[in-house]
Amino acid sequence: MAHASVTPGEMSSLAHDEHTHPGPGLYVKIGLALFVLTALEVGVYEVAFEHPGNALGTALRSVFVPVILLLSACKFALVAMYYMHLKQDGKLLSGVFIFGLILAALIIVGLMLLMAYHHAFARLH
Amino acid sequence: MAHDAALDAGHALHPETTTGIDNRKLAIWTFIGSECMFFASLIATYLVYKGKSLSGPTPAEMLQIPLVTFGTALLLFSSLFVVLALNGAQRGNRRQLIIWLGMTLVCGAFFVGMQVYEFQHFVHEGLTLKTNLFGASFYLLTGFHGTHVTIGVLWLATVFVTALRGKLPPERAMNLEIAALYWHFVDVVWIVIFPVVYLMKD
């Protein structure tokens, strides 16, 4: 194969990636795990809300939000660690991403607290 | 052989950057970090206004789980396909690269199509950007995500054309890896939006 000119940086990054990234077998296993977790999410929703008379559904409704968020967090972590290669790549990249995630969580919590305070204040006055 | 030579040459080289990480890769991760905050503000806005609409339609009346579950599966599989394409690119397996990258594009295009169909259906049912707080925050959040998916499809399509023309050798696999990182990020954002918007609609 006739390759165009290759810079040292390209060769360096290729060497790094080839020696650390997992193979197709693990990628397929992660894909199946993601599929199962999504099916679980939808299954929990169906049992909790589509069959109201069910005892299991009633029990699931009380823990629905934490269960769904936990399943979602597992999927998020699997994609970030294995498909985005954070598990294999340098800690600097994980740090950049996690710093962004921490700020994102602070934005969500901060905005929700601010608006909750605003609504409570508006009701009082 | 050329591949092995590239690997050997790579080992012999000192890092090109002060961090030892390809600058383009660090740049896309920094961009992804900033995008986390962008989507966090949109998700927070949706959550803050949830249940505050003075008139209908409500999320429980509008949102359809089966259609969106299908779209979610497509997006998750597209993440698997693009990482298999990247593996092919890094190993110099052009057939693997082209097949899986093509499958990724098909899944991405179907997801965008699903969202266009969903938006059209909602508008037909009377939910627009200015109908109520739910409409405004829903279209803003999912619309921006859909725009990101569309940009990802176009980006991956350019890499696909490059691969078809035989101009994506293993030494240039980083070009696909950067596009794939963006694509995975779009996927993880949907992993958050799907439960928060659709499964917690009641």
Describe this structure in words.
The complex is a heterodimer of chains A (125) and B (202). Chain A has 125 residues and is mainly α. Chain A has five helices and no strands. Chain A has helices spanning 8-20, 24-50, 55-62, 64-83, 91-124. In chain A, helix 2 packs antiparallel against helix 4. Chain A starts with 7 loop residues before the first helix and ends with a helix. The model of chain A is unreliable at 1-6 and 11-19 (pLDDT under 50). Chain B is mainly alpha-helical and 202 residues long. Chain B has helices at residues 2-12, 23-49, 59-62, 65-91, 94-125, 133-164, 173-199. The longest helix of chain B has 32 residues, at 94-125. The radius of gyration of chain B is 20 Å and the shape is elongated. Mean pLDDT of chain B is 91; it is low at 1-14. At the A-B interface, helix 1, helix 2, helix 4 and helix 5 of A face helix 1, helix 2, helix 4 and helix 7 of B.
